[in-house]
Design brief:
With 347 residues, this protein is of the alpha+beta class. 37% of the residues lie in helices and 17% in strands. β2 and β3 form a beta hairpin. α2 runs antiparallel to α3 and α7 crosses α8.
Length: 347
């Protein structure tokens, strides 16, 4: 039993870890299909799906042949009753056998390399068409910043992109950069992982064929809250996407009933780390809050965006996301209530 234990833990443990990552962590994702590479809805993910199935098929065939030969040999060449126990004649240095078991694996590996290389090339070489969307993705510990330089919009953690019609593709091209350490941008149903490396610009693209919400996650260990550096991509038909862009471009309108909360926001350290367009808040260390309420989650998918969770978050982010790089703000209960009353007006 002892010898089997590590193997058993590996076999049972790795799927559990994978599932926990997909479904267990962060805000409730019950309605969103789990992220897997086997249900692709975008060309780069489709290509990966094809290579993955091809590789699995080749490996499965090798497994069946090798395991079959082993089982056959065990049964066929058992020691017969009354055997004298002497070794049978041994064969050394058979050139045909040596040749066969060297060339066949080399050929198989070569085919796998060529198929993979062709896929990588066809995905990476795709030119950027003129009517595509451009987004700068900036990885931060532990959240994602999304900037649309051609549309004048900045948001966080929930990337909105238009549906890409196969007849008239409107893909989204992503430039990926890091504000601190290495991260990796991964939305399994849309494309492969792309590393996000300090002082380097990597690129990738997606052309989602189906509207919906697609879950993603940072895929490169980047510190304490790596596991809660989630993201979602909201794919919507072009008119909805245009409406979202128009709404994001609007500036905050002062609502007199939440003046006190707004005052607290503007006179507290919040302004050093957050932007609210149209106010004194111009900090870029944390997510842009101009349209905070347009997001379903806070803390990069750590919790749903409800007034209660906002209160808990602003009071002490580490109760929701231990180690998050926003300090506990230690406001009085009244100030906290008023501040959150202001935040929930940021549509
Ligand atoms: Cu990470």
């Amino acid at each position: 039993m002892k010898r089997w234990l590590p193997i058993l833990i590996g076999l049972v443990g790795s799927p559990i870890i994978a599932f926990a990552n997909d479904w267990g962590m962060g805000a409730s994702n019950a309605k969103i299909p789990p992220p897997t590479i086997f249900t692709p809805v975008s060309t780069p993910a489709n290509e990966i799906d094809t290579v993955a199935y091809f590789t699995i098929t080749v490996c499965a065939a090798i497994f069946v042949i090798v395991a079959g030969l082993v089982v056959y040999s065990i049964i066929r060449f058992r020691e017969p009753p009354g055997d004298d126990g002497r070794e049978p004649a041994q064969v050394y240095g058979s050139n045909p056998i040596e040749f066969a078991w060297t060339t066949v694996p080399i050929l198989i590996v070569f085919v796998l390399i060529l198929t993979t290389a062709r896929t990588i090339y066809s995905v990476q070489a795709a030119p950027r068409p003129p009517d595509s969307i451009l987004v700068h993705v900036i990885g931060h510990q532990w959240w994602w910043e999304f900037r649309y330089p051609e549309l004048g919009v900045v948001t966080a953690n929930e990337l909105h992109v238009p549906l890409s019609d196969r007849a008239h593709p409107t893909p989204t091209f992503l430039d990926l950069e890091s504000a601190d350490v290495a991260h990796s941008f991964w939305v399994p149903r849309l494309a492969g992982k792309t590393d996000v490396i300090p002082n380097r610009k990597n690129t990738m693209w997606i052309d989602p064929h189906q509207p919906g919400i697609y879950l993603g996650q940072c895929a490169e260990y980047c510190g304490t809250e790596h596991a809660l550096m989630l993201l979602r991509v909201v794919v919507e038909p072009r008119p909805d996407f245009d409406r979202w862009i128009a709404a994001q471009k609007q500036r905050a309108v002062a609502d007199a009933s939440v003046d006190h909360g707004r005052q607290i926001f503007e006179t507290t350290a919040c302004v050093n780390c957050h932007v609210v367009q149209g106010t004194a808040a111009e900090g870029r260390f944390g997510p842009d809050l101009t349209h905070l309420m347009a997001r379903e989650t806070i803390g990069a998918g750590a919790a749903m965006n409800t007034p209660d969770n906002l209160k808990t978050w602003v009071h002490d982010p580490s109760t929701i996301k231990p180690g998050a790089l926003m300090p506990a703000m230690n406001l009085s209960q009244k100030d906290l209530d008023d501040l959150v009353a202001y935040l929930v007006t940021l549509h």
